[in-house]
Write a structure and sequence with these properties.
93% helix; 87 residues
């Protein structure tokens, strides 16, 4: 979870720094620069969304694995207890 947060934070920070440097070094007019900023912001948003969706999918997979593991363990305990009660 911490690695995911660091990754997302790094992506956002890197994109923001890249956009800021690009704006400062851009030899274009204000209108073109604003258009580039909008495009860069939209790309950054899309990249962040993909990263978040990937993280959610990974967390969902881990959660489902733990639930399955817990269910198997519970079944084993129930079966074991049931066998002991029959004896």
């Amino acid at each position: 979870m911490k690695n995911t947060r660091k990754l997302i934070g790094g992506l956002i920070a890197g994109a923001a720094i890249g956009v800021a440097i690009g704006v400062l070094l851009a030899p274009t007019s204000g209108a073109k620069t604003r258009k580039k900023l909008v495009g860069g912001s939209l790309k950054m948003k899309d990249d962040a969304m993909v990263s978040v969706e990937d993280s959610i999918a990974a967390l969902r997979k881990k959660f489902n694995q733990k639930i399955d593991q817990l269910a198997r363990g519970s079944k084993e305990v129930i079966n074991h207890t049931s066998e002991k009660v029959k004896i």
